Amino acid sequence: MHHRFRGLAVGAVALLTVSAALPAAAAEPPGRQEHPARGGLSAVVRYTEYGIPHIRAESYADLGFGTGWAQAADQVCVLADGFVTVRGERSRFFGPAGRTDGSLSSAGDNLSSDLYFRGVRQAGTVEKLLAEPAPRGPSRQAKDLMRGYAAGYNTWLRQHRTTDPACKGAPWVRPVTTLDVAARFYALSVIGGQGGAVDDITAAQPPAARPGGGGRAPDARALIRAVRERAADADMGSNAVAFAGGTTANGRGLLLGNPHYPWQGGRRFWQVQQTIPGELDVAGAALLGSPTVSIGYNSRVAWSHTVSTGVPYNLTQLTLDPADPTVYLVDGRPERMTRRTVTVAVKDGPPVTRTQWWTRYGPVVAADDGSLPLPWTTTTAFALNDPNAANLRFADTSLGFGKARDTAGVLASLGRHQGMPWVNTVAADSSGHTLFTQSQVLPRITDDLAARCSTDLGRATYPAAGLAVLDGSRGTCALGRDADAVQPGIFGPARMPTLKDAPYAENSNDSAWLANADRPLTGYERIFGTIGTARSPRTRGAIDAVAAMAERGSLTVRDLQRQQFANRVTVGELAAEDAARACAALPGGVARNKDGAQVDVSAACPVLAAWDRTAGTGSRGALLFDRFWRRIGALVPNAQRWKVPFSAADPVHTPHTLNTEAPGFATALADAVTELRAAGIELDSPLGKHQFVVRDGRRLPIPGGTEALGVWNKVEPVWDPAHGGYTEVTMGSSHIQAVGWDGSGCPVARTLLTYSQSSNPNSPHSSDQTRLFSRERWVTPRFCEKDILSSPALKVVHVHGR
To answer: What's the confidence (pLDDT) of residue 29?
Structure first.
């Protein structure tokens, strides 16, 4: 299948020129002919069903060119919005008070976002990382991909008019540079650290600059709560499981990846196959703005990622000079903070100038309403250390996965490039091997260092939340360096929690401890995550299901597909029977709601009892239980919710037995019944009638359930009872892939991009896969040449920059 693309034979299929752009999302020919950028870059983009492009090129720059062109055709408005963000120009075009889509930082408004990203530009941060020699900096191949991507995106802009109403005719849709593409990688890398604290960085000011500033002490409980909420509220999650050859029907591995990512905005996935004959042949999903496949497979190995429990940053507590709060002491010697004065252009107003304060440990963080409730007093300040601020290796790590021939190759790429900022990796290969590893960039906080160097605040936050707060006044509290680490101050590969060749390896965003319940991982530092603590309902349900699958054996890709859409509600299996029984025992079938009113809940009891404990679109009782469980979560603390508490000796099956005697149980039931009746929703109405999205004017019922319910097929919809129930999905199952091998050289794969390939409502590929997701159907992707060329939807485009 390694043919030179210029000699590609396509039979009766016509070769289309670039001006005959394919996705209807794409555009119309411009009124006047514009000449594309010079440079001679070119690629062939072949589209199969559902608008999935298969890009063939002769070099990495050409491959990036084809990828940038094809991504722009599907996602130009979302991409352009993100490039405005990383250039720090949102206030210029959208006004300072507007909000970002949250995909590239947690900034509360455009001004805060711009102050941060303009500061990054002004400091030359990304340029310096691009100049670092590999492996500490990006390889020539990765830089060629970025350069080509920018050229391809720009070529598409020159050759087409945008039809997407989100940015049609907008002045902010402009050409980009290699630096813009690299800056987007950078933003994704730091989103768990600096990017999650943008407001705290840009608002931090010395106490003399703030009225009444200077006296407040840090609150350990508030900080612990903030760190936990920051992790819990992140709009990313995921499940992934790899099965070893001993559990499968043909002795080869299997992988099911189910990442939970936003359905709108700049953190969407985009499907693609990328081929450089004789060099690279990989398929899967790229994050928008990225020229590499992030989650995917090739002819021998498949991988997916799950967001990890590792805390990718730490704090340093600064002891300040009593005479000057912008000077801090290290081993008794004063060091002056670095002022970063940033000016931002503002729409319909004068430019805004603010000062940020940076130290050897990172930026000072302090904001009354920021994500980290920390003060800056006359004696103390806090700096944020984010090692991913020196990490532009994500592209090379992903590229190494695409070239890998087995799970050992995946692990080797992680060890060589060390570029994964905040995710675990789960992989399987055609020889039957499995892999789980929490190989990510983390500050090198050992438990010993935390014991020696934690401040009073850190002694509370580190064991409770994994957040180290170190004493910055002592030079001996520096993070140090592992011999096998590519940069100072991070853990090397030898320290990463890793599980090889287990019958199954699974993660659902809990720590590495129970990647396999029979082979628990221990011995890692607290910053990676916890050991011996309660697992989430989603983890418990996942382990229970995949362990049973592995024990049953003879698994195929079809079994992976069934697991994805089993829609099992873990909490329902634990609590629905108890809830139904207690409901039936209520005197007179009556309970009081939160307002104290008596509510007849008797009709809810048989609905809960008869419910099938799933979140399928036809499930009756799922919506009632969902609304009830949300209420009980707000009214009854987790420690009081179960009669049988958690036991580390049986972590998959504890806690259990709903405590129906807890104050709040009956109220939660009454509230749920009141809420549904007020919305005109029958208690036994099918879930899909009220959990849906609207596409092309049609309601599409959506299967799945929320994090609190513990459903593998996670969806987080918006409750809007005035318009019928759950009327949109903000995040959840995204690029799903079930992959195996049969010895033919062509992977046996089924995929599904839940929100579809294009964000342009005018595109036929803006909702086609969403309709599949609604019906729990899959795409059979085309990987090998014979399959691509036999596609009845095949369309071919030569794209070039000459």
So the answer is: 33
